[in-house]
Amino acid sequence: MDSTRSIARWVRLSGEPDELASFEWVKARLEEYGFETELTHHRAYISLPGPAVLRVAGHDREVTGISHAFATSTPTGGLSGRLVDARSADAAGAADAFAGKIVLVDGMASGVSVRTWEDRGTIAQVHVHDDHLHETSVSPVWGNPTEQGLELMPRTPGLAIRRSDAAWLRELMSGGPIEVTIHTEVLTEWRPIPLLTAALPTAPAEPYVLLSSHIDSWYYGAMDNGSANATTLEVARILAENAGELRRGLRVAFWSGHSHGRFAGSAWYADDRWLDLHEHCVAHVFVDSTGGKGATVVTEAPVMPQTKGLAAAAVKAVTGEEFDGKRIGRFADQSFYAIGLNSVFGTLSEQEASGASDTISFKTGGKRAGGLGWWWHTPDDTVDKVDEAFLVRDTKIYLAALHRLLTAPRLPFDYRPAIEEIAPPWAPGRRPPPGTWTRPGCSGTPPTLTRRSTASTRRSTAPAGRRTRSRTARCSGCRGTSSRWPSTRAGGSSVTWPSPWSRCRRCVTSSAWRVCRRTTPLPTRWPRGCTGPSTASGSGCATRRGSRGRRNRS
User: What is the pLDDT of residues 239-257, one digit of tens each?
Assistant: First the structure.
């Protein structure tokens, strides 16, 4: 908790002096633990939203709100227009209900939602939050935008208001159209932001595991992300004390630009160090918002399929609970997917959904998880929102996962669940709809291995005195209708192919194998004279050779 309190002394806006002070404090702690540190700066596209106000023509009441990062500012005199409720306008079904108007819409803004409303002709958006105003970014671009990315940025202003104010506005609109004027302020600019990395010199230099966390915050950000910074420091300290046990290196990174630059820090690092990450980094562990008050759910943290077992073992060892997990999404500084890094955790512990159903918070879905608390991204995210017992619990889970990654003889990744997720719909056990991806010469039906009894089929097709195998099958692609069916048995088109993935030569040697939906990786070169696979490995040759029909095992 001491580290959490120390970091939460500063309001850590990206690129601001107070944020740099917090970086320097963390740097000093890492050096005390024996790490070699490097504090650098890089340019990033940062957006800092300011206050927002909405006024209704003919009324003295002023509705206060907040602007959105990366939205535009209003002109000096504000922006005026008719306010339209998204719910009632959609119900009316009018195609031009929003053109040239300001829309009132429930829920938090995002890059996708803002673009959707802009495409429908709105000149501004007013988003309705719960009883608290939660800061957010509406950039659709991950990290720093290119010239093309700048064209995707929002073109209109937006603000968030409380639901009590929205109820008043809807009451006014029920009596007829109302005109409103909004004022928003947003500072968006290129500016240098800090980036801190640290390596443990007493551990192997490579391969290494990347442990990271963001320091920038909204307001004082005690939970998001001061407590997570404390978790990262404590895990780093303990691992440094036990460096002799480590089989792999440990690199620690602290990002800026997470909240105000759409993950600009980690995205820049991925671009700048991509070769080193690709060749030497084996995993990325991200720490965010640990130890939140009331955060009792630790069994639905985001993971990749291949890292779920690692997370489950860590959670089980610390809490005794069975881990369900959920697929990790596009958040939490996950800037390293394209490089090929396996990732475990984004957030870890969340509130019970039953107690958070009436609030807006960061929610990634699940059975029980209900977000990070009503104070998420608000001025109320202070030290009293961190539970010390939960913070210790979460830190132990991270430590268990990191220790295994760094000390296991083999990396604890199980790729079988990942393969199941990306297996094509025509894989065994998955039957695509009939008629999908058909072409001339192929039945176009879901692939089914046609088996025939040895007693009836083999006896009728095999030459007298010839030994036969116990299984026969038609081509699982074109179902034996191809005129180029390999004649490997005298007088019949049934072929001895023991693998259920087998295909006739037509399906193997032409693009029809994509159509037939029963595929295995094609060999780089078929043996000379081969017409198709005849062994379980698919490497044998099914061409007859000699009068007695011996197989060429080339």
Answer: 999 999 999 999 999 999 9
Alpha helices (H) along 178-256: 228-241
Please choose, from the candidates 248, 269, 295, the residue with its C-alpha nearest in 3D space to the C-alpha of residue 196.
269
For residue 420, name the pLDDT band (cuts at 50, 70, 90): confident
Residue at 427 is within a domain:
no
**Whole-angstrom distance, CA of residue 45 vs CA of residue 264:** 7
Per-residue model confidence as pLDDT tens digits over 62-117: 999 999 999 999 999 999 999 999 988 665 566 678 999 999 999 999 999 999 99
Farthest-apart Cα atoms in the chain, separation: 103
Give how many domains the chain has, as a whole number: 3
Helices (H), 16-110: 17-32, 86-92
pLDDT at 485: 35
Cα–Cα distance measured from residue 447 to residue 518, given in angstroms and rounded to the nearest whole number: 7
Domain that holds residue 347: 2-35+202-419
Instruction: Quote the CA–CA distance of 304 and 404 in Å, as a whole number.
Output: 17
Closest listed residue to residue 12, CA positions, set 1, 2, 23: 23
The larger pLDDT score, comparing residue 516 to residue 337, is at 337
Look at residues 389, 419, 449 and tell me which one is the last residue of a structural domain: 419
Residue 505 is predicted with a pLDDT of: 43
